[in-house]
Every structure is written in C-alpha cells, then in structure tokens.
Amino acid sequence: MGRKVNPFGFRLGVIEGWKSRWFQKKKYSSFLKEDYALREFVTEKFRKLGLEKVEIERAANQITVFIFTSRPGLIIGKGGGGIEALKKELEKKHRTISADGKVKTEIRLQVEEVSKPESHAHLVAEQIAEQLEKRILFRRLLKQSMEKILQNKEVKGGKIRVSGRLDGGEIARTEWLGKGRMPLATLRAHIDYGTANAYCTYGVVGVKVWIYKGEIFEKDKKTEDKK
After folding, report:
1. Alpha-carbon distance 166 to 159, whole Å?
2. Cβ(192)–Cβ(210) below 8 Å
3. Where are the alpha helices (DSSP H) in the chain?
4. CATH architecture group of domain 117-226
5. Residues whose CB is less than 8 angstroms from the CB of residue 106 and which lie 6 or more positions away in sequence, other chains included
6. Tens digits of per-residue pLDDT, 25-51?
7. Is 94 in contact with 107 (CB distance < 8 Å)?
8. pTM of model > 0.90
9. What is the CATH number of domain 7-113?
10. In degrees rounded to 5, what are phi and psi of residue 122?
11. Helix 121-133 vs helix 138-150: angle between axes, to the nearest 10 degrees?
C-alpha cells in the first residue's frame, strides 16, 4: 500500500506558508480550537460561493480573517452589508467558543479576489463536485476540467482523480486523468492541491485535484514575500 502525503503539508515551511499566523505557548490549544471553529464556519457558509481558502492572523486582542474567493461581490454584499453581517456572526461565534470570554477580541475581515479560478485546485474540485451532483458524466467532466486547467500559461501539468460509485455503478472504483508534469516529490515544485465531496443519490464521490505551477526558487520566494 502506497504512502501518501498532502502536497501542502509536505512543502509547509519550505515554499508554503502557514494558514494561521500566530504563536502562543499558554493558550495554544484554545487558540487552535478558535481558529478551527472560525475557519469551519466561514467554509460552510461560503462553500458554494467560490471560496478558495481562509487564513487567520492574530495580534493583541485582534483577529484578522482573510477570505480568498473568486466571487467577492457575493460575500461583501450591497454596500458592504454582507461583510458587516458576517463580522457580527463571527464575533458571536468567537464568544461562544472562547476560553476567556471576558477579554474583548476585535475581529476584522478582509476579502481577497482570486483571479483565474481555473488554476486553483480547490475551486476546480468544488466545481467538479457540483457538476457530479447534477449527474453529468464524469469522463466528460474530467476532460473539460483538464482543458480549462491547462489553458492557463502558469500551469505546467494537472491531475484529477474521482473515487466512488461513479455513474451509479454497483462497485466503487477510482478513475483519474493527468496531463503534463507532476513532480510530487520535489520540494521546490509549486503544487496546488484541493479536495471536495459530491453528495450524489447513489453515494459520496470524492474529488482530488493537483495543479503544478512550476518551481519556486529562493530568489523567487523572496520576491513574492516583498510583494
């Protein structure tokens, strides 16, 4: 049996940064619990609105939540009403899970637009899962999605894998399609990885997407950090 590792976790600290940026010795477990609850709340709320990822930064009595999405207008809302409502919901959520409820913590929201959603693995996986739930043939989906992925100039290769009772078959199986390069064992290789679940009438179908965007060297990493 092969040993698999998450491409993001494999490169964490090398070419990838942390999605939660803070450090606390005494309250580490409570802060980790808060981060998980806040991220899970935002993810469930905007799963169908092109949500790519959620990052969290902490300062003194302040939490900044970065929401990366391909459809920022739907989250911000008319006149910023959506952001204000979300901020109140997160503050209420934080008060219920916070170990130190007496200390007032300010929550800030920042919505970042994701350009070229076809080059982001999580967005592609969610789109494929949504189409599978509408009973579109998986082979056609794999080909169409792969073509869209490879249309981006920065993409050097891609791989899509679906697992489950495909097309309602009696026995679960795995099908995949890959094109271009995919150096999974190379640490400097920038590989975007995303997963999603399609909840079909005949069962759950898992979707995994890998997108290879070239290699990142130390000088390239420093240039991106400065930006």
Report:
1. 18
2. yes
3. 7-11, 28-45, 72-76, 81-97, 121-133, 138-150, 218-226
4. 2-Layer Sandwich (3.30)
5. 61, 62, 63
6. 888 998 999 999 999 999 999 888 889
7. yes
8. no
9. 3.30.300.20
10. -65, -40
11. 150
